[in-house]
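Throughout our pipeline, every protein is held as a single compact record rather than as scattered files. This encoding replaces a full spatial description with a residue-level series of whole-number codes. The remainder of this section carries one protein's record, kept here as part of the documentation.
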Amino acid sequence: MQPIAIPAFSDNYIWLIHMKAGNAFICIDPGTATPVLSFMKTNQQKLAAIFLTHHHADHIGGVTDLVHAFPDCETYGVYETRLPHLTQTLIPGKNFTYGGYHWQILNTPGHTSTHICYYEAEQGWLFCGDTLFSAGCGRVFDGTLEELFHSLNQLKNLPSATQVFCAHEYTHTNLRFAQLVEPQNQEVRRALKQLEQQPTPCSLPSTLTHELQINPFFRVHEPAVKAFANQFARAQTPFEVFCILRDQKNVFK
């Protein structure tokens, strides 16, 4: 069964993964409990575990109510004092098995200093929180641009068929920015047109193959992307191009 997107707030997604055995789910980054509780009640399911990518409120705000509703629910995350109700502390770079799946914990700081992603190689699933978005990437809060750049390069090198489950629906705005950066990129044009014509706003999951074609933060070596960056400052390295892109995206409307 494919992961299920539960919309929350104005643009968040809470991802639900059905465990291979039993009527139970794993929940990733529940910023609020209400839609998760509603799903479990409607479908007569239970919540067995919560996986957290980072500490921001729109990713952890529902944890307390969920563990109260499901007392046996475990909460997974890295050691971080800002993560609530942790019962299982994860170590980046290590693997663990849960729900019949084999999870790799990817160390992806940048958006925050302790951000992680969850990768399941057999299924080809990447739950990337706020590190990677379709056609974009996260802002830097208490991490650094250097960290974010290296984290994205790590994700970029996963198998190209990997499905990308981001935590926000930012794709339309990101594609508009990508079109500004690379106005001749036909894949960006096609993706934007398709998104504007589809009946539902959900653009996810994406794939790494698709992101390599449309995401300017993955395309910092491309001449058109370099040319865009050099309109604002002299960029000689891929990292310098990346920094200019991130600065321009921060002010893009």
Summary: The chain has two domains: 1-89, 101-253. The longest strand covers residues 12-18.
